[in-house]
Write a structure and sequence with these properties.
Number of strands: 75
Helix content: under 10%
């Protein structure tokens, strides 16, 4: 840093200095194309010959040390301040090594002369940081291993002597941690201008505990520690500042400002049952673990982790890696089934909801995160270690790179069965032989290109990362100073990978000159603005897995040639501002020149204002009953018993004010709330549905059933708890006396005992009264089997079931979830549009009271989906209804396409009297079952008998697994898309438009259409989620409601809840409008949750 050359530029009224070096990288400022890609350089060229070679022996193998294959890390940083980033590798059995960058991708091994390898040990984490604040990077090494002697595990702190030599000084600085250490991160925990340190530690390896009998006095070393920097000496303050004293198998740590409050937070990824830690900095030197409050679910076997802004919204997101293979064969042979009992036990014990999947946690800006890894396609990357969030192709969007591969597939199911058969006579030689025979398959690392709009493309081969390996630690830095980030991985039993980046896009790099005790500016945050875009970066280097990246901040700019504004925010609250900076430069931000700048407040009123439900008397809380949907149908993908509650609004007592009915769960009565002149609600004295609490309330509708000019109430009875024909499945009609007093009319409806969900009204037969369509949701115990829905014709207040001839398509139409009456073809008669689970979108045209299926004529073939909802309104202002249709969304593991649809097969395949549900996906050249051998054989025991091992099951196609004689009578459906859509009505056909990805993150259970911003274009407001899923499927909880603003071109733009004010992060089911105090309010119902209420404001478009 001392030798950096500088030049100064004064910009406008903001006092700052812009520093740059004369040897700026040479780069084409006007590239024809923005391309990415890497070249794997041979060791003969680079001189980097490091290999983390591990030699097993009779008494040193997986059976004596289960963490033998975790590997080690790599750190990149300029140790001699010559402007070239150097490289340090951690070794397990081999010594650590330091390579000096000589330029031109030539490196020199200076380990011996640098005095770094004087203390041998099993190195895991490595990080570079200026620990003694002298302007030179030091090296900190976290040690682990299988020794019961604490001194063998003492972490190493190599202080830089400024002459390419180092002095080990861990004891001197108070950082000689002797825990089973994983990785350390240096950061400023209290904004006092110096570097503190968080050390991730572990329990001793479980086999080490059994064999060597670690004494109890060492157990205190197993816990994570937070060391505060007290005038250059580090003090353990873990307990005092709120760091968990529970033990865990921590594997990585990140320090960043998740909640944008100016204080550095921490994320610690823990393997096994102990959940990850997410410590928010309280700003007073203490921390609070907020993992349960901020994240809806987490990875179960968390390994690597990183943070960064993935969608360029100015908020820091989070990625974590697990160990589930993407490949079907490896998944079915190497992964055990998740236990529902264990999953629930962990959750009830406070260990959160843990899934064996990677996560991509997108920061909502509302104090929570939404995991969209399934939609992004990054959820499964095999046994993964490092995950780095970094712009690899200089296009201005951060990509994701993942290392993976385990030297021995020790969790292979067939291999595990062999081990369980070992007897007490097994010798160490036998175990060593078994260890040598364990399956071993190197796997290529993964690279995902950020395609914007929460979309990522796996581009491993195209970018040159397809060499199979057992890679662990990984880091990036601009090794040749050409303006892009190169990558290095630390590999087991193979030379390290050194990748030269060939990106063509422009860039901006910011080097930081921090305070006297934090000279590299750790914790500084930069926000850049260019060509209408915004990027954010945080200067923190411990990232991924066991590794640290080059210091400083790097931004790709694509083809943009100038950055209009740069803001560098320092932990002391001051800011450097740079304006109109040309691309392809390295600038220096100096804290000495930073100024206190008053931040402008955003005074734009949000579109919605939350109303506390209890403040207006709406104290209803939905309480779902307990029911095991999987008792008979083990392979059911999600619960069918938790589809409520719904609501409906109307003026029931003729006082000019709209009232509200909310349905209840089984054993919970619904409630009618009456509105008063003050805009408050109170529970009506008339609640006759309390007597029907045994039923599960689903769809509900206020309408005039008996022609007496008041509004009666129809409640659909549904759920999955009841057998077909149970009296609890009878729908109910409650008649209004005109004053809001209701009584049940048991004779008005036919005795139809099916599980229904939707009910809508229209004068079908043009006789002056309202008839009904009732959608049957399911046949209990017969998932996917199509149910009959029906029309009810109103005959003087008594409803008769219409004959099948009036609407033949309603026979076995499917699992109906929603429907609307709408004049689709503009002939003056209400037609029917119906959607459902595993159903095509259905159009039934009304021909004088008879309904004919015209779906194909309207171009709706092959539209099968997991449809949840439909809403009709004129979206484009052409005078007819258009339709918003809520599907499962794209954030699911059931990938579907036109070329390779997702399928389901259902039948009693084993003749035991229960319905067997088999979900199927395309793999290589045919279809295979989605679920594994273990859970499939629980549903169909013959599977375990037919396929004696996991290999044979995983190697078999679907038709080799299911009995051929049962397939002909099976229900078979296929889905080409799970996208939620808009259908624009052209009278004889529809134009399909996919909703924005921000609305695809969860199922859309309900929507309303309204011009919420007063620009004369109709907007869409949606709610959704579905928490009730089987434990091998990540629950659908990423939704938090969405406001989609309509434009003049018919497109819709997602508005972040920080601007819209609409935020409903619950298991939402229904959204309805109600007028309160002459203004419109929105009511949202959610499963197992209170009501949410919002006032709607009309204003100019945001």
């Amino acid at each position: 840093m001392k030798n950096r050359c500088k030049w100064f530029l004064h910009v406008l009224s903001v006092s700052f200095f812009l520093h740059s070096c004369s040897n700026q990288p040479t780069r084409d400022l006007y590239p024809k194309q923005i391309t990415g890609g890497f070249e794997l350089l041979p060791a003969e060229k680079t001189g980097v010959d490091f290999s983390n070679t591990i030699k097993e022996s009779t008494y040193f193998n997986h059976y004596y040390y289960s963490h033998i294959y975790i590997g080690s890390g790599v750190a990149i940083g300029d140790i001699n301040n010559d402007g070239l980033a150097d490289v340090f590798f951690g070794g397990n059995q081999v010594p650590d090594k330091l390579y000096l960058n000589k330029g031109g991708f030539k490196f020199e091994d200076i380990t011996q002369n640098s005095k770094l390898a004087i203390n041998s040990g099993w190195t895991w984490g490595v990080t570079m940081a200026d620990v003694n604040a002298d302007g030179y990077l030091d090296i900190y090494v976290s040690r682990n291993g299988n020794s019961e002697n604490p001194s063998d595990r003492r972490n190493q702190l190599y202080i830089n002597n400024q002459d390419l030599t180092f002095t080990e000084s861990a004891i001197k600085y108070g950082l000689a941690d002797v825990g089973f250490s994983t990785q350390a991160v240096f950061f400023d925990m209290d904004n006092d201008g110096d570097l503190d340190m968080y050390q991730v530690n572990q329990l001793a390896d479980k086999k080490l505990l059994l064999i060597n009998k670690i004494p109890k006095e060492q157990f205190k070393y197993f816990k994570d520690r937070l060391y505060r920097n007290d005038n250059g000496k580090y003090t353990d303050v873990s307990k005092a500042v709120g760091i968990s004293r529970d033990v865990a198998y921590g594997l990585s740590v990140n320090a960043t400002d998740f909640n944008n409050d100016g204080w550095m937070d921490l994320y610690v990824a823990n393997d096994y049952a102990e959940p990850d830690f997410m410590y928010y900095n309280n700003g007073d030197g203490t921390f609070t673990n907020v993992i349960n409050e901020k994240l809806k679910h987490i990875t179960q076997l968390s390994m690597g982790s990183d943070s960064g802004d993935l969608n360029n919204d100015g908020l820091i997101d989070l990625v974590t890696t697990d160990m589930t293979p993407e490949d079907h064969y490896r998944s079915k042979t190497n992964m055990a089934s998740m236990s529902t009992e264990r999953f629930n036990h962990l959750f009830e014990a406070g260990a959160h909801r843990q899934y064996m999947t990677n996560t991509m946690q997108i920061n909502t800006g509302m104090g929570s995160f939404s995991d969209i890894a399934n939609m992004a396609g990054t959820a499964f990357t095999d046994w993964s270690w490092a995950s780095l969030v970094v712009d690899l192709d200089n296009d201005g969007w951060k990509d994701i790179i993942v290392t993976n591969g385990i030297k021995k597939d020790v969790d292979n199911n067939d291999y595990s069965i062999k081990l369980r058969k070992l007897d007490s006579d097994t010798t160490a030689d036998d175990l060593f032989e078994l260890s040598q025979a364990a399956p071993s398959q190197p796997i290529a690392n993964y690279v995902y290109k950020n395609k914007k709009e929460l979309q990522f493309e796996k581009i491993t081969k195209d970018w040159g990362f397809d060499t199979p390996s057992f890679s662990n630690g990984m880091a990036y830095g601009d090794l040749d100073n050409d303006g892009d980030l190169d990558v290095i991985t630390n590999n087991i039993d193979a030379p390290a990978f050194v990748y030269e980046n060939k990106a063509t896009g422009n860039f901006l790099k910011i080097n930081l000159e921090g305070s006297e005790k934090n000279k590299f500016g750790i914790g500084a945050k930069a926000i850049i603005h260019h060509n209408g875009k915004k990027q954010i970066g945080v200067n923190t280097v411990t990232r991924g897995f066991l590794s640290s990246v080059e210091h400083g901040l790097f931004f790709g700019l694509g083809k943009d040639t100038e950055v209009e504004k740069i803001e560098v925010h320092w932990p002391n609250g001051k800011t450097n501002v740079f304006k109109n900076v040309s691309a392809n430069q390295v600038i220096i931000a100096d804290i000495a020149n930073a100024k206190q700048i008053k931040q402008k407040k955003n005074n734009v009123a949000s579109l919605f204002t939350k109303v506390e439900n209890t403040s207006i008397g709406l104290n209803f809380v939905h309480k779902e009953n307990e029911f095991d949907d999987w008792q008979e149908q083990i392979l059911l993908p999600h619960r069918l018993s938790q589809n409520g509650p719904f609501s409906t609004t109307a003026d029931v007592n003729n006082d000019g004010l709209e009232d509200l009915f909310v349905g209840g769960a089984k054993d919970q009565p619904g409630i009618l709330y009456l509105q008063n002149q003050e805009g408050k609600f109170s529970k009506s004295t008339s609640q006759p549905w309390s007597s029907d609490r045994v039923s599960e309330d689903l769809g509900c509708l206020f309408f005039d059933a008996d022609g007496d000019d008041d509004l009666d109430l129809y409640v659909a009875s549904g759920g999955n708890e009841f057998k077909l024909g149970d009296n609890a499945l009878l729908d109910r009609l409650y008649l209004n006396d005109g004053k809001g007093n209701f009584r049940k009319d048991s004779r008005a409806l036919p005795s139809i005992k099916v599980s229904s969900q939707s009910v809508i009204s229209s004068d079908i037969d043009k006789d002056g009264d309202l008839d009904l369509f009732v959608g049957t949701r399911l046949i209990p115990g017969k998932y996917t089997f199509p149910a009959d829905s029906y029309l009810l014709l109103n005959e003087n207040g008594t409803f008769k079931k219409a004959t099948p001839e009036r609407a033949p398509a309603l026979q076995k139409i499917g699992m109906v979830t929603d429907a609307v009456f709408s004049d689709i073809n503009k002939d003056g008669q209400d037609d029917l549009m119906i959607v459902g689970e595993w159903m095509d979108i259905k159009i039934l045209i009304n021909y004088d009271g008879s309904f004919i299926d015209k779906s194909s004529e309207f171009g709706l073939e092959n539209t099968r989906g997991i449809w949840w909802s439909i809403t009709a309104a004129d979206l484009d202002g052409d005078g007819d209804d258009d339709y918003v249709l809520g599907n499962l969304g794209k954030n699911n593991k059931f990938k579907a396409s036109k070329e390779h649809p997702f399928k389901v097969y259902a039948n009693d395949f084993d003749d035991n009297g229960t319905n067997d549900v088999v979900l199927a996906k395309f793999y290589k050249d045919d279809y295979v079952p989605l679920r594994g051998r273990e859970c499939t054989s629980q549903q169909m025991p013959y599977i375990g008998e037919k396929f004696k091992d996991f290999h044979s099951f995983a190697s078999s196609k679907l038709f080799e697994i299911l009995p051929e004689n049962k397939l002909d009578k099976a229900v078979v459906y296929e889905i080409e898309s799970f996208e939620s859509i808009v259908l624009f009505n052209n009278n004889t056909s529809f134009k399909k438009q996919t909703l924005p990805n921000a609305a695809q993150v969860s199922p859309i259970k309900s929507s309303i259409i309204k011009d919420v911003n007063g620009d004369a274009f109709m907007d869409i407001v949606v709610v959704g989620n579905h928490y009730g899923v089987e434990v091998e499927t990540t629950r659908y909880d990423a939704g938090y409601g969405a406001v989609l603003l309509g434009g003049s071109d018919g497109t819709f733009e997602f508005i972040n809840p920080t601007k819209s004010g609409f935020y409903v992060p619950y298991d939402s089911r229904h959204i309805s409008k109600i007028t309160v105090n002459n203004a419109e309010m929105i009511i949202v119902t959610s499963n197992n949750e209170k009501l949410e209420a919002f006032n709607v404001r009309s204003q100019k478009k945001l």
